[in-house]
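mind reviewing this stuff:

——
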Amino acid sequence: MLRELAADLVDLILDWGYLGVFVLMTIESSFIPFPSEIVLIPAGYLASKGEMHIGMIMLSALGGSMIGAFINYYLALLLGRKILSKYGKYFFIKENALQKMDDYFEKHGHISTFIGRLLPGIRQLISIPAGLARMNLAVFSIYTALGASLWAFILVMLGYTIGENQELLDAYLKQITFVVVVILVLLALWYIRYQKNKKGV
């Protein structure tokens, strides 16, 4: 089924070109999350055949990811905040919990956003707490772009170098995801240690 979906996406991207990558990554990054690898790996494969350009794929993917992230951010900021403020008490969410979230994202929003954009299952959702916490938009944009660009580059290059070999794709994607998660855990531990040392000075 996944192989058929990938084949259909290759055809769709081939028909729509960079607009297809942009639209699919906008959807992937916002309200209908699905694995970005089923968009960017086929796009990378098309680049290896000379039918697309890696630079344009990256721009389209980044543009779509940012639009999708902004959709979630502003929905959470404009609607979610009001809903939680008004009805949060019925779900045992107190007003001071929102203040704590605000304080957390003001201090640690940059690292949380960057790490979140690289974690499977979380990358699409990290924009929601950032919006709820009214995270600084410029900081949110920079670290969302950094995380989204890095992940997109990994997937595009995976498709470019391995192409249609599904077994190799599955194996390498699992290995890459594992390595990324380990690196992010180490980054998070370093950041926690850095913050403790900073407080101790």
In short: The mean pLDDT is 78. Helices lie at 2-16, 18-28, 37-48, 54-87, 95-116, 127-132, 137-162, 166-200. The two ends are 56 Å apart (CA to CA).
